[in-house]
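User: quick one, sequence for these tokens?
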């Protein structure tokens, strides 16, 4: 069987950053624009972005302090023991391509607010942190993707072992994701279904603005997370949302091989204000790369067994479960 390369993205230490990508010299920017302008277009006018992609580059979702990180690690050791290391480099090959793009040191995905933190309403932050810190209390506290259900808004989830395939038909962009066989069919129209229709990955309606595919997404369920790490744990875990979630995604074609991503996210039920995240979402996969069938949950009883083994801390240290607003 043809071997498949696996690429690990480089996770960078969180710190201060002023943006996602540094400004390029004018000559380089003009050269990039020329390449985009000359890119092949399909009969319906779409920029041709078809092909197979892997994660372009990945950085931490939010900016946390070292003290916060240590406290989270300590809590996870209390509820599930030492980190099993299931997502270590033994699963992957490190991407050491000389031309691989790298963001500035300290970059995080949340670019607005400037502090790099999702602007939760106070009650919602308390609930989110409770879910994150007590993942085995209820099955619904575990990431839906880890339970082999759709990941919701996170079709863009950074991963070292996941690919995407893009197809374009007249009036549509179709995105297949290897993880859990997720997919999105994006009509290039603006009419969403009634609000009573609620979908695991929302309803996507797209349009092209020059070299950028803009997707307006509404009609979400409230059963998924807005952000989260591939392994199901992480300091941004438990990031619930309501059915009022609304996203404007922008997939910018950087050149023939790279696509950048920016999303504006709003949900007045849980966030204090709209916010943005951005990162280098995709780079074209090597020629011998292929997406495999994703067998997520064959005989896996980890959720059941961990729930049985989970020992709650003493009443004095157990955080009070917040009440929904």
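Assistant:
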């Amino acid at each position: 069987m043809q071997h498949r390369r696996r690429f690990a993205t480089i996770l960078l230490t969180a710190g201060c950053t002023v943006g996602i990508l540094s400004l390029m010299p004018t000559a380089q920017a003009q050269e990039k624009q020329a390449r985009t302008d000359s890119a092949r277009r399909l009969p319906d006018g779409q920029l041709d972005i078809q092909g197979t992609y892997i994660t372009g580059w990945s950085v931490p979702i939010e900016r946390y302090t070292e003290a916060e990180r240590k406290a989270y690690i300590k809590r996870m050791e209390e509820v599930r023991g030492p980190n099993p290391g299931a997502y270590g480099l033994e699963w992957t090959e490190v991407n050491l391509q000389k031309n691989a793009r790298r963001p500035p040191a300290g970059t995080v995905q949340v670019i607005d607010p400037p502090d790099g933190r999702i602007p939760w309403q106070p009650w919602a932050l308390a609930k989110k942190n409770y879910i994150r810190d007590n993942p085995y209390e209820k099955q619904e506290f575990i990431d839906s993707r880890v339970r082999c259900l759709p990941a919701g808004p996170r079709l863009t989830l950074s991963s070292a072992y996941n690919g995407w395939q893009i197809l374009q038909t007249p009036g549509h962009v179709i995105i297949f994701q290897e993880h859990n066989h997720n997919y999105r069919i994006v009509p290039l129209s603006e009419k969403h279904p009634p609000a009573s229709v609620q979908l695991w990955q929302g309803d996507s309606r797209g349009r092209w603005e020059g070299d950028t595919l803009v997707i307006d997404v509404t009609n979400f369920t409230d059963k998924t997370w807005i952000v989260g790490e591939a392994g199901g744990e992480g300091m941004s875990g438990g990031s619930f949302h309501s059915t009022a979630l609304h996203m404007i995604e922008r997939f910018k074609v950087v050149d023939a091989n790279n696509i950048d991503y920016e999303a504006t996210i709003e949900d007045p039920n849980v966030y204090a204000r709209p916010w943005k995240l951005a990162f280098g979402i995709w780079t074209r996969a090597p020629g011998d790369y292929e997406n495999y069938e994703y067998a997520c949950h064959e005989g896996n009883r980890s959720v059941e067994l961990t729930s049985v083994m989970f020992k709650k801390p003493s009443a004095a240290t157990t955080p009070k479960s917040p009440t929904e607003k």
